[in-house]
């Protein structure tokens, strides 16, 4: 239980600092936008590159990753199906689908993996799947949906992933790892330093955004927020358990690993994406906040039952 509580404590403290900065106005009226742009265009691409450039890509073919991928696609597909019927729009639907299935595998997943599962590397499959598979596709869809991509020539639309810093950082890191290239220290060290700003910048921006915001579930985003939070905190770990135990026959520690990973809340960087593309910002903010709160008892329960 220590890992669950300590991981959440770190997030709460940094978000609270951001909230205090927002209330006092220390960063000015543009503080949140500056932090968001810093995270999106500089820090996060650097983080993704350094993590993936040194990653063991063989974990992509593990059973854990397959369970994670299938459960992510299942909840995202459910959200998209409802969104199509409700006509929520491409950009808003993309953000909601991410909130339903994109877990906080970094700043929360790693400490929980260490303290609950006993091995930080166990979060690597979901981390790689999200960075390599989900993120480039999602930001490309957001770019096309919000940036007038349909008006550009076909060849420019096909090159959209190469114009997005998040996608470039992810794909470049995978290419370096696949090639077996060792990045020299003078190149890797400054990138690591820049990447270390990603999580704090995103959490601080999230905290600033909470200042003056409406109470969750009282605005026009109530329906998509509840759907995303329900899929993320209840449906995704349940689907992961059914797949892992029923389809793949996992038992014991491997079963606990995949269910705990699936029960992690929505990642804070989803709010960064929403803010950058100016779509679904309230949805992302409220879904991340509520899924983080709800996931605490869910994670404690999973660890007690399967641990």
Helix and strand sequence:
HHHHHHHHHHHHHH
Quick one: how many beta strands?
0
What is the name of the CATH architecture? Up-down Bundle
Briefly note the structural class of the backbone. mainly alpha
Mean pLDDT: 85
Assembly category? single chain
Query: Using only CA atoms, what is the Rg?
Result: 18 Å
Distance between the termini: 10 Å
Number of helices: 14
How much strand content do the residues show? under 5%
> What does the largest sheet look like?
none
CATH topology: Na+/H+ antiporter like fold
Describe the model.
The longest helix is centred in the last third of the chain and has 26 residues, at 222-247. This protein is 75% helix and 0% strand. 51% of the residues are buried. It has 307 residues and is mostly helical.
Provide a brief overview of the structure.
This protein has helices spanning 2-24, 31-53, 63-86, 90-101, 109-117, 124-146, 154-158, 165-179, 185-195, 198-210, 222-247, 252-262, 269-277, 281-306.
Task: Looking at this protein, list some descriptive labels.
307 residues; Na+/H+ antiporter like fold; 75% helix; globular
């Amino acid at each position: 239980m220590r890992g669950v509580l300590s991981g959440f404590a770190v997030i709460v403290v940094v978000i609270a600092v951001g909230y205090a900065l927002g209330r006092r106005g220390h960063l000015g009226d543009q503080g949140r936008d500056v932090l968001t742009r810093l995270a999106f265009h500089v820090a996060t691409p650097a983080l993704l590159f350094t993590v993936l450039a040194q990653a063991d890509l063989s974990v992509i073919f593990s059973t854990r990753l397959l369970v994670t991928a299938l459960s992510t696609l299942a909840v995202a597909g459910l959200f998209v199906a409802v969104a199509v019927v409700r006509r929520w729009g491409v950009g808003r639907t993309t953000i909601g689908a991410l909130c339903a299935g994109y877990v906080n595998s970094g700043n929360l997943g790693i400490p929980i993996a260490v303290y609950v599962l006993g091995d930080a590397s166990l979060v690597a499959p979901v981390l790689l799947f999200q960075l390599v598979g989900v993120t480039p596709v999602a930001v490309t869809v957001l770019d096309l949906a919000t940036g007038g991509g349909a008006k550009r020539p076909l060849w420019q639309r096909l090159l959209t992933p190469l114009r997005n810093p998040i996608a470039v950082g992810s794909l470049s890191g995978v290419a370096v790892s696949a090639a077996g290239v060792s990045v020299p220290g003078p190149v890797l060290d400054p990138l690591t330093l820049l990447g270390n700003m990603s999580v704090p910048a995103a959490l601080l921006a999230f905290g600033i955004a909470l200042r003056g915001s409406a109470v969750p579930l009282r605005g026009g985003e109530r329906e998509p927020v509840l759907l995303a939070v329900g899929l993320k905190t209840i449906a995704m770990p349940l689907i992961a358990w059914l797949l892992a135990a029923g389809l793949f026959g996992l038992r014991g520690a491997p079963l606990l690993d995949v269910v705990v990973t699936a029960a992690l809340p929505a990642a804070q960087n989803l709010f960064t994406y929403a803010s950058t593309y100016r779509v679904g910002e309230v949805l992302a903010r409220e879904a991340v906040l509520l899924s983080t709160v709800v996931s605490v008892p869910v994670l404690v329960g999973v660890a007690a039952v399967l641990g």
